[in-house]
From TrEMBL:
tRNA processing as UniProt keyword: no
GO MF, any single term: transcription cis-regulatory region binding
SUPFAM superfamilies to which the protein is assigned, alphabetical: lambda repressor-like DNA-binding domains (SSF47413), Periplasmic binding protein-like I (SSF53822)
Transcription regulation among keywords: yes
UniProt domain HTH cro/C1-type: residue ranges: 8-54
CDD domains in alphabetical order: HTH_LacI
Signal sequence, start to end: none
Name of the protein: LacI family transcriptional regulator
Boundaries of every HTH lacI-type domain copy: 10-64
Pfam families assigned to the protein according to its UniProt record, in alphabetical order: LacI, Peripla_BP_3
């Protein structure tokens, strides 16, 4: 029997030689891309793809002492009515972690188990290198628990000043200030904000942006919190629109609130984009199909995910916790609901 010669795989040295950089630069591109200039990372990544280089994950894990796994406690959702926004966020997180050689492990407490106990179980078993948290609430117990344990985490949402500042968030305040400026530029003087009554931090930020926006333009904007039930939203908004001094422009704190607003406007015989300017926040997939299509603020999910993974790896691999959180701008999506 004739033995075939063994084919040598592409090595990291081959990639470094082809890219004209050091072996360490290739390692940084794979493990800590935030250390490289954008143009260097782009050039090295192109060579890695061209040569088909794939690092030995088991060897990397043994050398670094990491599992190369990030735990993500998933928000509770209704399978019959899933949150498309968080589905998009998960997709972005999986893509961003995969690009640097990490995998995402979805975490959900077992029956009778608290979220903190579920996290402790993974920490004790050395299953994950760190956690990625989302839907951060005030006094979030997960943040407090991981801070006390000294275990690496990054958060989509702001943590308290005395806690690690490895968070990334959207600058909701500035985004809504800009929305208010747009409706004022179209001649509207009676403006209102439609808020959820849930008390979520991001909803409060959007309300604060509205109040800052109307103050900037010398207006007395009104804030309404009709509740979160769809029927309540429609009924309360109809009452608002039937008033003698009804607003001619409304900013909703979320696209789902705007859906009730569309229903209420139709019931009151008002044409959105003509009789009433409407804007909202989140850019859910349905917003582009409404009649008229809804002006809204899109969350830059890919940029958020990449920043979160980068910050978490600084802690895991370099032992460096960011000293300040990162605010990213929302992306304004202008559609006909604002009017001409």
């Amino acid at each position: 029997m004739t033995r075939r010669p063994r084919t040598r795989g592409v090595t990291i040295e081959d990639v470094a030689r082809a890219a004209g950089v050091s072996r360490q630069t290739i390692s940084n591109a794979l493990n800590a891309p935030y250390r490289l200039k954008a143009e260097t990372l782009e050039r090295v990544s192109a060579v890695i793809e061209e040569l088909g280089y794939r690092p030995d994950q088991s060897a990397r894990s043994l050398k670094s002492g990491t599992r190369r796994i990030i735990g993500y406690p998933t928000p509770v959702d209704d399978p019959a009515n899933p949150n498309p926004l968080m589905g998009g966020f998960l997709e972005a997180v999986v893509a961003a972690s995969g690009e640097v050689g990490y995998r995402i492990l979805l975490v959900r407490p077992q029956p009778g188990q608290s979220q903190e106990q579920a996290l402790d179980e993974l920490i004790a078993a050395r299953t994950v290198d760190g956690f990625l948290l989302s839907d951060i609430l005030r006094d979030d117990p997960r943040v407090a628990h991981l801070t006390g344990a000294g275990f690496p985490f990054a958060a989509f949402g702001r943590t308290a000043p005395e806690q690690p500042q490895s968070w990334v968030d959207v600058d909701s305040v500035q985004a809504v200030i800009e929305l208010v400026g747009m409706v004022v530029a179209r001649g509207h003087r009676r403006v209102a904000f439609l808020a959820s009554s849930s008390g979520q931090p991001w909803m409060d930020d959007r309300r604060d942006g509205f109040l800052a926006g109307v103050r900037r333009h010398g207006l007395a904007g009104q804030v309404y919190s009709p509740g979160d039930d769809p029927d309540e939203i429609v009924a309360a908004t109809r009452e608002l629109l039937a008033g003698r001094n009804r607003p001619t422009a409304i900013v909703a704190g979320g696209d789902w609130l705007a859906l009730g607003l569309y229903t209420a406007a139709r019931a009151e015989g008002l044409e959105i984009g003509k009789d009433l300017a409407v804007a909202a926040f989140d850019d859910l997939p349905i917003t582009g199909f409404l009649q008229p299509a809804l002006t809204t603020v899109r969350l830059p999910l890919r940029r958020i995910a990449e920043a979160l993974i980068s910050r978490l790896l600084q802690i895991i691999e370099d032992g460096v916790t960011p000293q300040a959180g990162l605010l990213l701008p929302g992306e304004l999506v202008i559609r006909p609901s604002l009017g001409p």
